[in-house]
């Protein structure tokens, strides 16, 4: 079991427990995190859930990851600085 922090647009932070293998969306829904509507139930069809990861917390992509991202039409604009 780990912890994750959801931060709302207004800066309010919610620290919750997350089980191994559980999705961020399901964890947010289970914990009543405001703004995570999950209207499609996690099918990636509605666009009501967004994950923004602080650039300082991710590693540079390796060759394998770069290949996969290219194959799935990755757009760098999907990440924020």
UniProtKB/TrEMBL annotation:
UniProt cross-references to InterPro entries, sorted A to Z: 2Fe-2S_ferredoxin-like_sf, 2Fe-2S_ferredoxin-type, Adrenodoxin-like, Beta-grasp_dom_sf
Example of a GO MF term: 2 iron, 2 sulfur cluster binding
Alphabetical list of Gene3D superfamilies matching this protein: 3.10.20.30
Cofactor: [2Fe-2S] cluster
Entry GO terms, CC: cytosol
GO biological process: P450-containing electron transport chain
Keyword terms: 2Fe-2S, Iron, Iron-sulfur, Metal-binding
Pfam families recorded: Fer2 (PF00111)
All residue ranges annotated as the 2Fe-2S ferredoxin-type domain in the record: 2-81
Family statement drawn from the similarity comment of this UniProt entry: Belongs to the adrenodoxin/putidaredoxin family.
Protein name: Ferredoxin, 2Fe-2S
Source organism: Marinobacter excellens LAMA 842
């Amino acid at each position: 079991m780990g912890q994750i922090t959801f931060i709302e647009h207004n800066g309010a932070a919610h620290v919750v427990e997350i089980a191994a293998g559980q999705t961020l969306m399901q964890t947010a829904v289970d914990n009543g995190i405001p703004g995570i509507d999950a209207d499609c139930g996690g099918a990636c069809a509605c666009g009501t859930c967004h994950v923004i990861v602080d650039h300082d917390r991710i590693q540079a992509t390796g060759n394998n990851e770069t290949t996969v991202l290219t194959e799935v039409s990755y757009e760098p604009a999907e990440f924020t600085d």
